[in-house]
Write a structure and sequence with these properties.
Blueprint (H helix, E strand, L loop, with lengths): L2 H13 L3 E3 L6 E5 L4 E5 L8 H8 L1 H8 L8 E5 L16 H11 L4 E5 L8 E4 L2 H11 L10 E6 L3 E10 L2 E9 L18 E4 L3 H17 L4 E9 L4 E7 L5 H7 L1 H14 L5 H7 L1
Antiparallel strand pairs: 1-2, 2-3, 4-7, 5-6, 5-7, 8-9, 8-11, 9-10, 11-12
Helix pairs in contact: 1-8, 4-5, 7-8
Length: about 290
Amino acid sequence: MNPNIRLLSLACERLGLTYEHLHSTENILRIVGPTRNWLFVNWKAPLNDNTMSEICRDKDYFYTLTHSSIKQPQTESYFHPLGPERFAKYRAFDSFEAIADDVLAKFALPVMIKRNRGSGGLNVFRCHDREGIIRALTKIFDGASKDFDYIALAQSTIEIAHEYRAVFLDGQLILLYEKNIDQALFEGNLSPLHWNGGKAVVIDDQALHTTISNFAASLFAALPLRWTGLDIVQDRNGEWWLIEANASPGFEYIARDAGDDVIVEVYSKVLATLGVTSPTLAGAQA
């Protein structure tokens, strides 16, 4: 069972809600509400519309729409230079080498090279020279790979002091945790919670909650995201940056490290927003 669906099921049980699984994998969950039913599928919740979800999934689109509203690392996109001819109108360069030269002209080293779509730190590279950039592009544009993408991104490197996942519901911060690598060992994946020993640590510091909420407020003024997990970092100079937004945040690691109750509370708030509350509570209010 998908980790998010498992945790949502637990929230439904604790709230006494009527729900059912609709697939042999148990990864589609239907909740019976007072006026309508709601479907949750894998990582997805019925909060963002398709447009918002697609914008978050496509990092190039997201950056284009939001970089003037909230501080983000400089980002450039590069279409596959050797792709099918029908996509030639999107190509600005005809080789990996030409892309690498453009990256070097626009970015200081080291530079981040990553695929445009995807998560989990797959096909994300910190490149220190031209050869490293070309190797990264070769992997991203490998059509035989399950992690293939037809767009690669170059992004300026942020020297990160602290990295957080901030989960927002209708513009309100409802969960904040640090992706802590103080006692972790890097094993090839740059995403902190994929390090050996990386930990998700819940942050209750209200001053930090306020700081991050204030930093993110301009994003929600620009883009009507109802439900998102923002990867926000503080650099070594104390500056704040948005790295990316996830319209379907996963809770596997935070549940592993902080326990199920943290996410049960999150889902209780999500369900309340959808108008689905505990029958006992609803009866008491009536």
